[in-house]
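**Paired protein data**
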Amino acid sequence: MSKSKKVLVLSGKRKTATARATVRAGKGRIRVNNIPVEIFEPKLARDKIMEPLLLVDDEIWKQLDINVAVSGGGFMGQAEATRIAIAKCLIKWTKSARLRTALRDYDRTMIAGDHRRKEPKKFGGPGARARSQKSYR
């Protein structure tokens, strides 16, 4: 009989960025688009991605391998989508209500996400609200 391996796949979204995280038991390797998170650039985005890991005990995430595939949006939207995906994975893997409340108290968008999207463009101008200028002369 072979042992069944536990694998979780969860996603996070922010603006137009979508992150898909795959979690399995491992040695604490975290990769974003096949780049180790320790050398991920820019530093501001790396710090944003690391937030849920810093709030969790080291012995929890040091036993997991997390691979995140993120696409769409800008670098900060991708970082926040990755952060949401990692936080959801940690909560689902541990099934801990204490961890959920800790992450929620720190920043609710780590669990709930942010529902805001771009407003659709309307006629009569270049964007959603902007209008073409008129000249009376």
